[in-house]
From TrEMBL:
GO terms for molecular function: tRNA 2-(methylsulfanyl)-N(6)-isopentenyladenosine(37) hydroxylase activity. It comes from Flavobacterium saliperosum. PANTHER family: TRNA 2-(METHYLSULFANYL)-N(6)-ISOPENTENYLADENOSINE(37) HYDROXYLASE, TRNA-(MS[2]IO[6]A)-HYDROXYLASE. GO terms for biological process: tRNA modification. This is tRNA-(Ms[2]io[6]A)-hydroxylase. It comes from the Bacteria.
Length: 193
């Protein structure tokens, strides 16, 4: 369904399990950034009613996810660490087209967000199926479902609002690019690392 070119090696979960505090901290900040991204899209495109409605819902859900992760961190007596740089997201951002119209920028931002949500969904699936911690397995299964919904929402909105970008063609380019860069990831205790 996601169309990703390369699946995450399930052994990545072994790396994650070696430091649960690290993955939870990274995950919390990923949720915060996703909420911020949705709010940014609203601020840049307030005239698009359906977009604003959908982005408001996503921002709310992402903040709820942040709170859920933070609650797990507290319940386990762990500490929410500082925000980390996400090299995967930085590499994806470099692929975003920076020229073009305001509408072109909106479509790129939506596809950029869809790509992150697709990979996050895939990583949450891998976690839910392979992590030994039953509480986290269920938690990541539930989040996987939510992330899949966000991914499809971003793609749907890109198709709805595109004025001249061939969204299907551009999405294929995003998938191809992500398939090349993801080979450098899956070796860290982070959601995308």
């Amino acid at each position: 369904m996601l169309g990703l070119k390369l699946a995450t090696d399930p052994r990545w979960v072994n790396i994650v399990e070696s430091n649960i505090e690290e993955i939870l901290t990274d995950h919390a900040w990923c949720e915060q950034k996703a909420a911020t991204n949705a709010i940014h899209i609203i601020a840049q495109n307030p005239e698009n009613e359906e977009l604003v409605t959908e982005m408001t819902q996503i921002a709310r859900e992402e903040l709820e996810h942040f709170q859920m992760v933070h609650d797990i961190i507290k319940q386990r007596g762990l500490t929410l660490g500082r925000e980390r740089k996400d090299n995967y997201v930085s590499e994806l951002f470099k692929f975003s087209k920076k020229d073009g119209s305001r509408n072109d920028s909106l479509i790129e931002r939506l596809l950029f967000a869809a790509m992150i949500e697709a990979r996050s969904c895939e990583r949450f699936r891998i976690l839910s199926q392979n992590i030994k911690d039953e509480e986290l397995a269920k938690f990541y299964h539930d989040l996987m479902v939510s992330e899949a919904g966000h991914y499809t929402t971003f793609l749907k909105l890109a198709k709805k609002y595109s004025e001249k970008v061939d969204v299907d063609k551009r999405w294929k380019e995003w998938l191809d690019y992500e398939g090349r860069i993801i080979t450098n990831y899956g070796k860290q205790k982070t959601v995308h690392g």
